[in-house]
Amino acid sequence: xxxxxxxxxxxxxxxxxxxxxxxxxxxxxxxxxxxxxxxxxxxxxxxxxxxxxxxxxxxxxxxxxxxxxxxxxxxxxxxxxxxxxxxxxxxxxxxxxxxxxxxxxxxxxxxxxxxxxxxxxxxxxxxxxxxxxxxxxxxxxxxxxxxxxxxxxxxxxxxxxxxxxxxxxxxxxxxxxxxxxxxxxxxxxxxxxxxxxxxxxxxxxxxxxxxxxxxxxxxxxxxxxxxxxxxxxxxxxxxxxxxxxxxxxxxxxxxxxxxxxxxxxxxxxxxxxxxxxxxxxxxxxxxxxxxxxxxxxxxxxxxxxxxxxxxxxxxxxxxxxxxxxxxxxxxxxx
Length: 334
Prior knowledge:
disordered N terminus, 5-stranded antiparallel β-sheet, globular
């Protein structure tokens, strides 16, 4: 055994022999190609631009791929960048694009928050952007499409990178493996840090994918709608809103400490779209937060998405609590 897991008086798991852990995981920042090696189709930074801005053609549509109603798998081509990609499409709820279990703003906020402390090659949440598909193009998904936002001629939703070489087999967390497999511990710690910070409260196995490569057991969180203090939660499974691993990476905690002060306000506006003369909403540079007490703000032909003041305060509390636990050595680092 490489380190001992014990129980602090506070009830938190702690690790004995931290110096041994540091030696074992000295190479835990092992490199992969940007974009998650064989999982991401392109580097996340490139995907963000392509998915948000470029026009595309829908080559094929597959329904019933899991999740809430409206989730489809698309095969699309982006002529400008000469890319053909598989993507997940999730239609936003009618009216304000915000529902109890279909919340694009929270999904996008989860993607944005991981950037505080993770390199692109270590992203836990697949690349996601808000997009409004023109009605004439949306006929590939619906024979008679109707706009779901006022003042638009498009259907609002999110496009998500379809990650490859992953599946649902096996448990997410293996305690013995965490102790003995540095690469797995690297990914598992990053995954749990992200789910804790966003307060992920739907631990169904189908919401998470794991790498098919046994030597690189990365874990991905693909459905993050029940998070950030959701009004509902899944009471029937263990959720990932707590730190369940025995140690976190020192590098990610350092980055979190540095990024949180400026990152917190930015969570208030994670996407903004405005309609052009054709009535199609397209991404624009985020403006000032129009209403900090609402997550979805808009008027005909314009929408702004982000976390509410209360949800951001929740993130700040979790950051402060975690950093205090690290300082008091109630949470171990490697």
